[in-house]
TrEMBL record:
One of its GO terms (biological process) is chromatin organization. It is found in: Nucleus. It comes from the Eukaryota. This is SGF29 C-terminal domain-containing protein.
Length: 268
């Protein structure tokens, strides 16, 4: 093996190390984005939010780095195949044949449709909501107002991408006080903040309009935050729209885990 050949292979090895370090950095950023989207999934529906675009860019970068790594690895393998002494031809042939079989298996496996990591995480998050109480828009699309209520998730269908939910509060117009069931898309669901995960709970400053559970009910209405909270566990002081008493809006305390971001285009 000549010195120029060795020097070239060493250069390629250094390039592989660089590519792998870059891939690790990109993967860290991807994981950060996944955690952010899992903790505040409603952010992707906000106007001007670029979270999904950033995630797409990171995946594109990861794909390009992976392809570059594969290209250099193949070049190194080619150089080694040329430089390995002929005496090892039998062993080399068996190794190559084994690799060919592996490639065939990998090719066969790749024909099976698979979800991207981001979609898998999203599906897992949706499925994890089973048994949880969430805010749900149950009114029809052509309804004059948006009706948001507390429901319990009973199932998430990965095929139809729909949630099956149960309104545990019997409706006044329901025969025998029966509980109502709905099938809803993700856009009609807002998870409530988790008491066990205060670090990722979204903070709403004074003056911010939100959607909140009206005290003593299982319905959510548009409200405005009146004052800042001192601690993450404190209740919000809110003024609900159309809640006038004696010509003024009373201030009502609502637990932080019953307050969510106001959906765009909310009709009340």
């Amino acid at each position: 093996m000549s010195s120029p050949d060795i020097a070239e292979m060493l250069d390629k090895s250094k390039e592989l190390d660089r590519l792998r370090k870059e891939q690790e950095e990109v993967l860290l950023e991807i994981n950060k984005m996944h955690k952010k989207l899992q903790s505040t999934p409603e952010m992707v529906e906000k106007p001007g939010d670029s979270s999904l675009s950033k995630l797409k860019m990171l995946y594109t970068q990861a794909k390009e780095l992976s392809e570059s790594e594969m290209s250099i690895s193949n070049q190194l393998l080619g150089q080694l195949d040329v430089l390995i002494p002929a005496g090892g031809a039998g062993q080399q042939r068996r190794r190559i044949e084994g690799n060919e079989q592996k490639k065939k298996r990998m090719k066969g496996d790749s024909d099976i449709p698979r979800l991207s990591p981001s979609m898998r995480n999203q599906q897992e998050f949706f499925a994890s909501l089973k048994g949880e109480q969430v805010a749900a828009r149950v009114a029809q699309e052509d309804g004059e107002k948006d009706e948001w209520v507390i429901v319990k998730v009973t199932h998430y269908d990965k095929e139809t991408k729909e949630f099956e939910v149960l309104d545990e509060e019997p409706g006044e117009d329901e025969e025998g006080g029966a509980q109502r069931k709905y099938k809803l898309p993700w856009s009609h669901i807002i998870p409530f903040p988790k008491i066990s995960d205060l670090a990722t709970t979204q903070e709403f400053p004074p003056g911010k309009q939100v959607l909140a559970v009206y005290p003593g009910t299982t319905a959510l209405y548009k409200a405005t935050v009146v004052q800042a909270r001192k601690r993450k566990t404190d209740d919000y002081t809110l003024e609900f729209d159309d809640d006038e008493e004696d010509g003024s809006l009373p201030q009502r305390l609502v637990p932080f885990n019953q307050v969510v971001a106001l959906p765009d285009g909310h009709r009340q």
